Amino acid sequence: METTAHSPLPVPLHPGLPILGNTLAFLRNPLSTLHTLQRQHDRLVHLRIGGRNQYLVLRPEDVKHVMQENHRNYGRSPAFEILKVFLGNGLLTSDGDFWRRQRRLAQPAFHRQRLAALTTTMIAETASWIAELKQHNTKQPVNISQAFMDITMRIVCKTLFGSDTTGKLDGLSSALDTLNYLANKKMLSPIRFPYSWPTPDNVRSKRARMQVDSFIYGVIDQRRQRDEDKDDLLGMLLSAEDEDTGEKMSDQQLRDECVTIFSAGHETTAVSMAWTIYLLSQHPDVLARLQTESRTVLGDATTPAPEAFRSLTYTLQVVQESLRLYPPAWIMSRRAHNPDHIGPYTIPAGDTALISPYLLHRDPANWPDPDRFDPDRFAPGGPKEQLHSYAYLPFGGGPRLCIGNQFALMEMQILLAMLVRSFEFTPVVNQRIIPNPLITLRPNQAVRINLL
Ligand code: HEM
How many domains is the chain partitioned into structurally? Predict the structure, then answer.
């Protein structure tokens, strides 16, 4: 008998502890808990985490419903409040009409034609980074995780602020790291003191935030005083006008968008690159094919032409497969404004829908032998093209799709192709890397590699 919206079935509740529900399982080992949930449930599963009702959505078609078809019913979940402390009310954390307006203002800065101009900057920065890596003592392994943090920070800075930041990045980088670390810590902590309390972590967080603010307001001020029309992302954001009202962004909004693009735009890419190098170190056959492609297509030019990178099809496949196995945004959440009906079930108003790209990307129903690294899944005409579009979502989906997705894919292709073209590399023996699911899915230790 068909169950109607008037008599919904209760969503299966996953067994948990009295009072704590599933909180401890999620805190202790979120990834293996997710796999257990996938094995034991079919469509939706009800969890109690941190005293809240949360509903994990398991099927791609239902994920599409939440993120795209019925997206207006969902807003940012309480988890974003922690990020707001340092990101402010920027694109990632804001909601409703305010978010819609900001997205409209920022979108042109990421259009295809703009990206072509930014690509030239990415190539030049990568070339000087490679030259620095070549100075490295070849007997010592390179901490490639850190090297990627440095270069992605430089690229986002150059594309966002142009040359205004030369020589000023060190303090900013460590302040952002501190804020990221403290936000992670707070998210995982069962006890959260309000930010107004002068705990040691709160004091550190405030100090780091002040450092970031003084840097960003300084750059904005300098730019306004010079009254220059610069061709970088900040220039675009400064001149962006609302179509309806003609209004421009306030300094506070500019600050929030800059910090958001800065944070969302470098750590995710750096972590993905570290995973990619780790995977390649375990798969010499894939590395060899990648090297052949980059050496053939790019040749020896120190700064290859931007158009050349469009022909790197296998490089893109490697990047996509790495993002499948280790999507930095491994879990996303949305809060339901009104009850939402999914098949015979209902997500009640005020509760949270959880979506895990990590789990969807390893669902054996869609990805045969899901733990195997196989870039040919993404070959033109290959198996990925037969799948539901929401079976693969490293950049999210619907109107809140990552605004920097094309930027990130281009950056990763450039970094990867130029790196493997320039070096032979071998893994450091006995390095056992496993995923550490913080705000992003990081390797549990720095990835090190011998570059020859
Ligand atoms: C491998 C790299 C990246 C990954 C995996 C990634 C992933 C994501 C995901 C999954 C979301 C959606 C979150 C949600 O719906 O809850 C998102 C949003 C966002 N990303 Fe990215 N991202 C990456 C790189 C970048 C870059 C390079 C930039 C900017 C230069 C950027 C800027 C943003 C912004 C501003 C948002 C918020 C968009 C909105 O809600 O309107 N990201 N990203």
Answer: 1
